[in-house]
Amino acid sequence: MTYETLLVERRGGVAQITLNRPEVLNALNEPMYRELSRTFDDIAADPAVRAVLLTGAGRAFCSGADLARPRQTPEGGTLGDGVAETMHSLINPMVARIAALRKPVVAAVNGVVAGGGVGVALACDIVIAARSASFIQVFGPNLGIVPDIGCTWAVPRLVGRARALGLALLGERLPAEKAADWGLIWAAVDDDRLMAEAEAVADRLAAGPTTGFGLIKRALLASEGNDFESQLAFEAESQRIAFNTHDTMEGVAAFLQKRKPAFTGA
């Protein structure tokens, strides 16, 4: 498959996806939305891929939506109608695919991440950022628009309502180390160690119980909307699935035999 906006390569069980529009700080455009959706669909269907590493080319992870691209106004509608329709049909399905993938997704944030790029990063499961990186919500104070691509869902759940409002209303840069301290991301690491650290995490996840990881992701997502008893029931049904997998049987056997498990992802 050829790509206009991405670089996609395989390393063992890891698929590495690089946002590849460095001349515009990897700004999101229509071809990138489509290629990300298609790539995550392919990964979901490929049992040989057991983890994903997402990063950006050049000096940024992603600067958000490409504001220079022309926007379509539907016949008889407004500019806002066109934006909303594009979000419903193209942008939202893309970020939903990242979040819903039943395999672990690691983001290596290599520089500035702004606007909708924050939503793309936070749709990943483990976010590791270079210390020089920063997160910025430019939507409101700079443009008068609402944070999107999942930002209004993810940010308050990760850092709380007060901090989410401060970030959204003031548009101040949040340095990577503070983002880690606040719980927005997993870790901030030295710039020259970013890819090595992220690759090590992705490799570790790719060697793990893939189905079990997918069940964990689903259970934690479900907990956001469940009461305690409903979540207990959800856990029980998740364990029903997990204990019927090869990897859980292997994990139990390895535990009892005091050896390292050899997971296959099945």
UniProtKB/TrEMBL annotation:
Classification via InterPro entries: ClpP/crotonase-like_dom_sf, Enoyl-CoA_hyd/isom_CS, Enoyl-CoA_hydra/iso, Enoyl-CoA_hydra_C
Query: TM segments?
Result: none
Q: List, in alphabetical order, the Gene Ontology terms for molecular function in this entry.
A: catalytic activity
What Pfam families does the record point to? ECH_1
**Of which family is this protein a member?**
Belongs to the enoyl-CoA hydratase/isomerase family.
The entry's protein name is: Enoyl-CoA hydratase
Q: Highest lineage ranks of the organism?
A: Bacteria, Pseudomonadati, Pseudomonadota, Alphaproteobacteria, Rhodospirillales
